[in-house]
Amino acid sequence: MIQGSYEKAEQAFRNSLHILAFQPEVNLDLAKCLIHLRKYPEAMENAQKSIAMGYEKADAFFTLGNAYYFLGNLPTATQAFLKAIHLDSTKADYYYNLGNSLVSQGKFEEAIGAFQKALSLNTEYPDYYNNLALSYQQRGYLESARALLIEGLKKHPNSRLLQENFEQLKALVNN
Known about the structure:
By secondary structure, this protein is mainly alpha-helical. Helices cover about 80% and strands about 0% of the residues. It contains ten helices and no strands. It folds into two domains: about 1-75, Tetratricopeptide repeat domain (Serine Threonine Protein Phosphatase 5, Tetratricopeptide repeat); about 90-175, Alpha Horseshoe (Serine Threonine Protein Phosphatase 5, Tetratricopeptide repeat).
């Protein structure tokens, strides 16, 4: 997005709320914008308002989960991501963010399942391979991590992240 666009969007959504105060979609759009602006408490509040107004859609819970995650409230973020997945199980980024929340809580086995699902839905993001491989590595599944990084590098040969983590894993295994 163009520099300053989120600030302009934030103001436009706030102006819209004066006219459309009872439109939960406007609160949700503002919450998404506030996430990009790193205004997490306000983002959380607006996502909660949207849900409280009856907009119980997956993207509302996903946005709420993101706000909680960035605020460091990981168990609540995890619950919000799980609710989003319950409402729409077709979005890879829902599983990916769930996996990140679980990793941040040290729940690597659960994170592995979330990252595997994200990767089964979408192979276009090197981060999906990387975070799954790192979770495998944390659990001691070094061969699975190595195989996954090789698979990721075949799909994304220019990914510096995958290359660096593959080299680090090779060094770890060789020591």
